[in-house]
Write a structure and sequence with these properties.
The structure is a homodimer of 248-residue chains. With 248 residues, the first copy, chain A, is mainly alpha-helical. In chain A, 71% of the residues lie in helices and 4% in strands. The first copy, chain A, contains 9 helices and 3 strands. In chain A, strands 1-3-2 form a 3-stranded antiparallel beta sheet. In chain A, helix 1 crosses helix 3. Chain A is globular and about 55 Å long. The interface between A and B is medium-sized, with 30 and 30 residues. The structure holds a DNA duplex (30 and 30 nucleotides).
DNA sequence: GTTGCCTTACATGTATACAACAGTATGTTT
DNA sequence: AAACATACTGTTGTATACATGTAAGGCAAC
């Protein structure tokens, strides 16, 4: 449904959620939002419904909407869902890719290699991190695109977005030991991405799938570790606001 | 969102879509539905939105809603999605199942075995088919339940429902050759189900996953064959209206 | 001082009136 | 007669008034 005002409201609220301006748990009152966006409550309600199906907000009858907050259990389930879909997509990519898909994947891979080197060389990692994240996302999107299954791609992107919101906005500083840890992880990620690319380029679905599965499982375990560390139930990740702006 | 009238409208429309009373492509006009359900257009609109996210209806701006009609390409993509999720779920079930889950799976398996024997023995298959389908669904649901991932279960159930709607309502008669073919397929399905159960019971995720993957791939291929045969782009399946009423 | 009920306030759910848009039919012009 | 423009009809999109339900705050009783 593409009615104008509904879309305006949808994009408005969505952006504020993704930017962290509306943090998880924040109440989203229709009247308030309506005056803010300068439309009536009706399209706001529609937008909130749509955002609910995106998994970004929770709506309870007579209690209104709020930015989605996720239990650890649900988060784990979501990660598993992503693992299932994205590894399957990697297998499909190995079979269905075109030459253009491959070069797109390669592009993201090279960019990540370059950025990783720079970050490891530099003393402070902050300024380049957002770029690295962006290229990381570009890599995964490129793989999903190569799989030639739009439904699957859409669903995975949805999961990425939800993940990002519930992961929260805390991007704490790291000590030097943590920096070393991070550097090691980044190298590993690079290697795994390369393995995935190689398998896809070689049209080897079994390996591509297995490598993606391994890569994501490592990522998930790492994230869950961070969550349990912060013991708040929200994931600590070091990405700012805009760099994951892969919409649809 | 659980507001009363919205739910009434939602259930009403949903039921009519699933029963085939509103066939694929059928226009769903808000005013008409509103008077039929005896509520106003607002909750009807909400219900249609929800049904859209369920994948049961299509909504285009200013053109209104209609019961979802699917392209062959999209159908294939959906099948692939289901394959990815449900085979992964089978793997999880092998790891996470409880004793209760196993007995539920076993129950469905035994019921199918009994019904299959009866159907093969009988000359006409019609009356028992719906029961067989019901138990088939029960089996798959039991496996997904055993996987202990509610998000995944929900998503798979959604796919099942959409599949059912777009598959249409044509349950044509079969010739005796086709009857023999069908009997053979039913035996195969039974064997595969048994293999899946055995792997899950043995806590062997790799085998469980592989067997489910094989089983579903066979099913998908069969369905796609039927579609191309009927050349209308809608799948011919022999199930009536109510037996797949697994909701949420 | 605490507890329980009742009242009140406010946000949401619903209905309906109004505006905008898509498709169709009709009429005029070439 | 054909083609284009225009008016018309019906449905959706939007705004707003009204009904209902929830939660919080105050009052009274213990």
């Amino acid at each position: 449904m593409k009615s104008v005002n509904t879309d305006v409201a949808y994009e408005h609220i969505r952006k504020k959620i993704l930017s962290g301006e509306y943090p998880p748990g924040r109440a989203l009152m229709t009247e308030l939002l309506a005056t803010e966006i300068k439309v009536s409550r009706t399209p706001v309600r529609d937008a909130l419904r749509k955002l609910e199906t995106d998994g970004l907000v929770t709506i309870r009858a007579h209690l209104g909407a709020s930015v989605k907050r996720m239990e650890l259990r649900e988060f784990r389930e979501m990660c598993d869902l992503r693992l299932a879909l994205e590894s399957h997509a990697a297998g499909l990519a190995a079979v269905n890719h075109t030459e253009g898909d491959l070069s797109e994947i390669r592009y993201a891979l090279e960019a990540m290699r370059r950025l990783t080197d720079q970050i490891i060389a530099a003393s402070q990692e902050q300024p380049l991190l957002s770029e690295l994240v962006r290229e990381d996302v570009r890599f995964h999107i490129a793989v999903m695109t190569a799989a030639k299954n739009d439904l699957m791609k859409k669903e995975i992107l949805r999961l990425h977005l939800v993940n990002r919101v519930v992961s929260g906005t805390m991007g704490g500083k790291k000590s030097s030991v943590q920096k070393a840890e991070s550097d090691a992880r980044r190298r590993l990620v690079l290697v795994k991405h390369n393995d995935i690319y190689t398998a896809i380029a070689a049209s080897d679905p079994v390996t591509a799938k297995r490598e993606m599965e391994f890569h994501l499982q490592e990522l998930i375990d790492h994230n869950l570790l961070l969550i349990t560390r912060t013991e708040t139930g929200v994931l600590a990740r070091d990405l700012t606001s805009e760099e994951l702006a892969y919409n649809s």
